[in-house]
Design goal:
It comes from Paracoccus onchidii. It is an enzyme of class 1 (oxidoreductase). The protein has a domain of 199 residues: Oxidoreductase, molybdopterin-binding domain (Sulfite Oxidase, Chain A, domain 2). It has 442 residues and is of the alpha+beta class. The chain contains 8 helices and 24 strands. The longest helix has 15 residues. Bound molecules: the ligand Nc1nc2c(c(=O)[nH]1)N[C@H]1C(S)=C(S)[C@@H](COP(=O)(O)O)O[C@H]1N2 and molybdenum atom. The ligand Nc1nc2c(c(=O)[nH]1)N[C@H]1C(S)=C(S)[C@@H](COP(=O)(O)O)O[C@H]1N2 binds next to strand 3.
Length: 442
């Protein structure tokens, strides 16, 4: 089994992969405090709080001495942070780098259990780089648009920023999210099993705006997007998607894109698999056919049980996961807990999330926290009283196409085990009588 996983990893990464997750302690401590605070009446003062205040500050954080009584002395000045704010020195959740053999082609995962609401802080957005993170001067960066257009165009960042803009909240999920989990529960935390999805507010110009300016010719059906990184990542995008909700994004959560997210310009294809959201975007070419690039032939295709491969499996199917309680946590004692998690669909809005505490035998509808937006993370919550018995927590999402998130058994029935992409099955967390939460297949 381990061999198979490593082989699949090799296929994707071109290197060895270690299956071990070493993020357990940080995840446990970070998460527990927030839930103790949220549900303070039930578990205040419990074992879950200990250790948190002692947590190590994240790399680069300025550590100020804690004031014994902050009402009795002046606080630090507004100049101390150099003019750009940072989070509290006591908050230390970080992205977890999946242990790929090479740092040249690597990924890091969002600590979903430590998140609130639906927006991922930019500094915790997951990353997937095939050729490292380039440093690009926005003053000289250009986007070229050519091919089957009446008028080829060239844009500087300044040109793009003069055009009408939109701001939209959308998730990006790598279709490799969960790839270790097909055959056996492998990674311990929700960061490991589901951390290749993040939500930001993205701002930029609609791709249709620049395509209309250039004038697409009759017969145009696909558009190639190309990145300016060492991978020169390229993907073909159906022209209908390009004309629908695609965005040339230059901003994320109210500021310029982070370099890791494609600074100064990335393609945002709401609901499509992460790989198509080309970062460091420099070229668009309109054509009457797909370009059959490496990323849509050798990679990012899904080998089915009958030996045929699904190609251009672009829309991410509906999915959900419980982030609290989740793997590697420990419930200190029986009592009240608010079960919470995230649901999302690449095909539209989430209409319903159901939660089971008995491994799928019975289900209860969770409350959806607004706003419930299409192709965006949606927060769900359900009050739960744990009586100290063994339990298996699961969530299943439904989207506005009527689709319901499948069990792993159902998914494997259809897809087989020859491919690692697009795992959107129901996740199970086992609660032991001692409160230990573990990743299981139920
Ligand atoms: N130019 C370029 N674009 C890219 C990639 C890349 O390596 N180079 N990786 C892709 C993959 S596989 C994913 S999942 C997303 C990840 O986006 P993020 O790093 O902003 O989370 O970017 C995509 N766009
Ligand atoms: Mo990806």
């Amino acid at each position: 089994m381990a061999e198979r996983l490593v082989a699949l990893e090799d296929q994707i990464l071109g290197g060895d992969a270690d299956e071990d997750c070493d993020c357990k302690d940080g995840m446990f401590n970070g998460l527990s405090r927030r839930h103790v605070l949220a549900a303070g009446f039930a578990v205040a003062g419990g074992a879950m709080t200990t250790g948190r205040a002692m947590a190590e500050a994240p790399p680069g954080a300025i550590e100020y001495p804690v004031q014994p009584d902050p009402t009795k002395e002046q606080g630090r000045t507004i100049l101390d942070d150099g003019g750009y704010g940072s989070r509290s020195q006591f908050e230390n959740e970080v992205r977890w780098r999946y242990p790929t053999a090479s740092l040249d082609s690597s990924w890091s995962m969002t600590p979903l259990a430590a998140g609130f609401g639906i927006i991922t802080p930019s500094g915790l957005h997951f990353e997937r780089h095939h050729g490292g993170i380039p440093t690009i001067d926005p003053e000289t960066h250009e986007l070229i648009l050519h091919g089957m257009v009446d008028q080829p165009l060239r844009f500087t960042m300044g040109d793009l920023k003069r055009l009408p803009s939109v701001s939209r909240l959308h998730f990006i999920e790598c279709s490799g999210n969960g790839l270790t989990e097909w055959v056996q529960p492998t990674l311990k935390t929700v960061q490991g099993t589901h951390g290749l999805t993040s939500t930001s507010e993205w701002t930029g110009v609609r791709l249709s705006t620049v395509l209309d300016m250039a004038g697409i010719q009759d017969g145009a059906a696909w558009i190639l997007a190309e990145g300016a990184d060492a991978a020169v990542m390229t993907r073909s995008v159906p022209i209908d998607k390009a004309m629908d909700d695609a965005i040339l994004a230059y901003a994320q959560n109210g500021e310029a894109l982070r370099p890791e997210q494609g600074y100064p310009l990335r393609l945002l294809l709401p609901g499509y698999e992460g790989n198509t959201h080309i970062k460091w975007l420099r070229r668009l070419e309109v054509s009457d056919r797909p370009f059959m690039t490496r990323e849509e032939t050798s990679k990012y295709t899904d080998l089915m049980p009958d030996g045929n491969a699904r190609q251009f499996s672009l829309e991410m199917d509906a999915k959900s996961v419980i982030t609290f309680p989740s793997g590697a946590m420990k419930l200190p004692r029986p009592g009240f807990y608010e079960i919470t998690g995230l649901a999302w669909s690449g095909r539209g809005a989430i209409t319903k999330v159901e939660v089971s505490a008995d491994g799928g035998a019975t289900w209860q509808e969770a409350a959806l926290e607004g706003p419930v937006l299409p192709k965006c993370h949606t927060r769900f919550r359900l009050p739960w009283t744990w009586k100290g018995e063994e339990a298996v927590l699961q969530s299943r999402a439904m989207d506005d196409t009527g689709y319901t998130q499948p069990t792993l058994a159902k998914l494997v029935e259809v897809r087989g085990l020859k491919s690692v992409y697009h795992l959107n099955a129901i996740q199970s967390w086992h609660i032991a009588p001692d409160g230990e939460v573990t990743n299981v297949h139920a």
